[in-house]
Amino acid sequence: MTPYISEPTKELPQVTVASPLHLPQLKGELQAFNEQQARAFEGIEEANELIFERAGFMDALLTQIWQQLGLGAVNDLSLVAVGGYGRGELHPKSDIDLLILSRDLLADSTQSAISEFITLLWDLRLEVGQSVRTVDDCIHLGLEDITIATNLIESRLICGNNTVFVELKHRLHKSDFWPSQTFFRAKRDEQKERHSHYLDNGYSLEPDIKSNPGGLRDLHTIYWVARRHFGAANLLEMTVENYLTQEEYRELSECQNFLWKIRFALHLVTKRADNRLLFDFQSDVASKLGFEGKGYEAVETMMKEFYRTIRRVSELNEMLLQHFEESILGHDEAESQDIDEHFQLKGKLINLKTPGLFFHQPESILDLFLHMADNPQIKGVYATTLREIRESRRRLTYWLQDFPACRSKFIALLKHPRGMGRPLTLMHKYGILASYIPEWSKILGQMQFDLFHAYTVDEHTHRLIKYIYRYPTEKSRKVHPICGEIFPTIKQPELLFLGAIFHDIAKGRRGDHSELGAVDAKEFCLMHDFSEKEAELVSWLVKNHLVMSVTAQRRDIQDPEVVSEFAAIVKTKERLNNLLLLTVADICATNDDVWNSWKGALLKDLYYQTLHYIQQGHEQPVSVRSIIRQNKQAALDKLLSKAFCHSTIENLWRRFKADYFLRHTPAQIAWHCEYIIQHNNEPKPLVLISKNASRGGTEIFVYSKDDHSLFATVVTELTNKNLNIHDATILTSKDGYTLDTFVVLEPDGSPVAVDRTQQIKPAIVKALVDPQAQVKRIPRMSRQMRQFSVKTQVNFLPDRNRRTELELTAFDAPGLLAKISEIFQQANLVLHNAKITTIGEQVEDLFILTTQENQALDKAQQVSLKFALDQALDNAPGKT
C-alpha cells in the first residue's frame, strides 16, 4: 500500500484470522484488533501507522474469507479496494469500499458465493460499500461519473486474479478515459461546489474534518490530480517536479497526520462513521489526543490547532491547484501586465516580480492589497506570490504595525472605498491581519462555546466587517434599509471598521472583553495617528457594542425612561449611527439564522426614538401624555372613517387605562377596537391574528374576561403550536378584561403563514374556554442543546412606576416560558410585559411585574420569587 503523502514508517504486521469461518470467532478477532488499536492510539505522535495497519488487517481478513468461500478459485475474478481503502487509508469506522471485478458476467453459483461473502461482512458489523462489475461496466460507469472514476483510479488489488485487475488499470490509464485536462476541471469544480456548501468557510464551530474547506478532501484533491496527470504515486514525487518545496511537503504531511489523528479519535469516540466534530464529542476527542486544561481549555487548544491546520491546507491546496492549472490547462502563458516595478497582473491574479521583497521591505505586503483595492479586476494572488507571503510571514520577528511605512499603508487601505472588500478578506485568509495586529493573532481559531455563534471569533469579526462593507449594495438595502440609508452619511467609515475589528478582539482573555477591547482600540488608533476625538469614538463603539442590542431586545423600549437612559449613553447622532450599523452587522455575523424582521423592527424603533430624543435635547423629557393624545387621535380618525360611532368609541376607551394607548400604535388600537366593538362582550374570548407582519412578527391579540391563568394558558398553546414568543404586552381594562398582545415568529424567524392562523386561532379560544382540558406538549430538546447548561440568574432592576423589572437568564429548555408563567401565577403576581430573547442555548428575558394590588414587589417577595425560579429552572432538562 502506498499512502498518498508519505510512506509508512515500518513494515505492516502479519495478521491471522479465524479458520475455518466461524462468525463468533471472527467477531472476537475483529474486536480484539479494535481494542488493540484503541490502546495503541493513546499518546501516539502519528496516526498513519495505525491507519495503514488497519488496512493491512482488513486485507488479510477479507482475503481469508474470500479464499475459504471458494472465490479465489473462480477464474477472472478479483477483489479490489477502492476509494480511501484503495489508498490504504482506513480509520476505525471508515467505509470499506470494495469492487468485485470480473472480465465477464458471473455464473449463478459465483453470485451466490459473493452474496454470502458480503452478508458475512455485514454480520461482522463492517461498514461495507460494494459493487460487482465487469471491466466494461467500470469503464462505462466511470466515464459517466467523476466520483466513480476517482474511486477506480485509486483502486488496489486485495486478492484474486491479477490479470483482470491489470486490464482494468490499463484501460483506466488510456487517454480517452478522463483525459487529465477534463479530470482536472471536474475535480476543481467539485471542490468549488463542496466549498460553497460550507459557504467557503472552514471556521464553523462544529466543522467537518473531511469535507470542510481545508479538510482532508482538499488533500485528496491535490493527490488525485497529481496522480492522474503526473502519475505520481505520492506527493513526495512532486518535490522533484518543483511543484512543492521539501518544507511544503513536510507541512502537508504534518497537516494530514493531525487531521488523521482527530478523525481516528472521533471514530473511537462516536463509534460510527461521522466526520463532524460536534460539540457533543469535542471534549472526549481532545482528551484522547492528550490535550489538557480546566473547563474548555483542552477543547480550545485542540480547535485552535485544527483551524491552524485547515488554513495551512487551504493555502497549499490553492497554491498547488494553481500550479496544476498552468501545467495541465496551459494557462502559464497568461498575459502579464505591469502594475509597478514590483507587481504585475497575470491574468486576474496579482504577482510579485521581485523575489524576497516582502521580507526585506515588509510594507510591500500592504502594497499588494492596496493594488487589489485599486484594481477590482484582481481576483486573487498568484501561486508564487502566495508562497512569498507564506515564507515572509513565517520569518517575521516583529509585528507589521511596528513600522511607520506599514501603518500609513494600512490606514490607506482602511480608508479605501474597496479596502474592506476582497483585500481585507485575503489579508485575513493569508494571516496578514494576524501578522499586523498582535491582538488579532490571539483570536485566530478562538472557540465560542455557545449555540448563538456559529463561527470562531476571528471569522465572526471578518463576517461582521463584510456585512458593514455590503450595506450600500442593493441586496443589503432590501434586508437592512435603514442601514443602507445611514451608511453613506458616515463621514469616517474607517472608524466604524476599526470598531468592528476590535469589538471582540479581547475575547478569550480574563475580564470584560468590551472594556479590554476598548483599551486596545484606543491605543491602536493613537499609534496610527488618529486624533484623540477619533480614538475616543472607536473606543466608545467597542466598549458599548452590545448596549443597543441589549436595550432593544431586553428592555421595555416603550418606556420613555428606558429610551432616555439609552440616549444619555449615546449622546450624539454620530455615535448612534455608528452604533446601529455595528449592532446590526454584529447580530447578522453570529450565524445565518439569527437575524429576523422582529429584531430589525426593535432596533429601528429604538433608533428613531433615541434620535428624536437627541434632536429634542436632553433637557426636554419625552411627554407621555402627548404620545397618548397623538395615538388616540390618530386611532379615532381611523375608526371614524369606518363609520363607527364617536360615542361608542369613547365609551369603550373609558374602560381602558392610559398604558394601553401608550404601548400600542394608532393602527393597533383601531384594529383591536373595531373587533371589540363588533364582539359586543360575547362570553367567548376574542382572538385576533394579524394578517401581515407587524413590528417584524405576527401579532396575536387576546380580549377576554381576565383570569389568573390566562397568560400561562396562551403561552402553553403557542408552545404547542411550535411558535416562538418574542414579546408579550399584558394589560387589563378597568373593568377586568385582558388586552394582551403576543408577538410570535416561526422557528425559522419568519412571521406565521396565513394558512397556519386558521389552526392557531380556534386552538387558543378552545384552551381559554377550558384550560383544564389543555394538553401540554413539551418539544424535544435538540442534540446540540443537550451539551450545554446555563446557571439560572435572577436579577431585579430598579423599580419604575411602582413596577418591578425582573431580568432572567436561564437554559432554554422546552416549555420554559410556560413554566415561568406558572410560577408567576402561583406567586399571585400580575405580569404586565415580557421581552423574550433567546441567545443560542440560553434565554435572557425581561418581565415587568406587580402584586395584585398593583404595587412593586418588596424585598421579601423578590427573595421568595428568586428562590422559586432557581428551584424550578435549575432542575430543567439540560442542567448538569
From TrEMBL:
Keywords linked to the UniProt accession: Hydrolase, Magnesium, Multifunctional enzyme, Nucleotidyltransferase, Repeat, Transferase
GO biological process, one term: regulation of nitrogen utilization
Domain HD: 457-579
Segments forming domain ACT: 699-780, 805-880
Protein family membership: Belongs to the GlnD family.
HAMAP family with a match to the protein in the record: PII_uridylyl_transf
Domains (record comment): Has four distinct domains: an N-terminal nucleotidyltransferase (NT) domain responsible for UTase activity, a central HD domain that encodes UR activity, and two C-terminal ACT domains that seem to have a role in glutamine sensing.
Protein purpose: Modifies, by uridylylation and deuridylylation, the PII regulatory proteins (GlnB and homologs), in response to the nitrogen status of the cell that GlnD senses through the glutamine level. Under low glutamine levels, catalyzes the conversion of the PII proteins and UTP to PII-UMP and PPi, while under higher glutamine levels, GlnD hydrolyzes PII-UMP to PII and UMP (deuridylylation). Thus, controls uridylylation state and activity of the PII proteins, and plays an important role in the regulation of nitrogen metabolism.
UniProt protein name: Bifunctional uridylyltransferase/uridylyl-removing enzyme
Lineage: Bacteria, Pseudomonadati, Pseudomonadota, Gammaproteobacteria, Alteromonadales
Record gene name: glnD
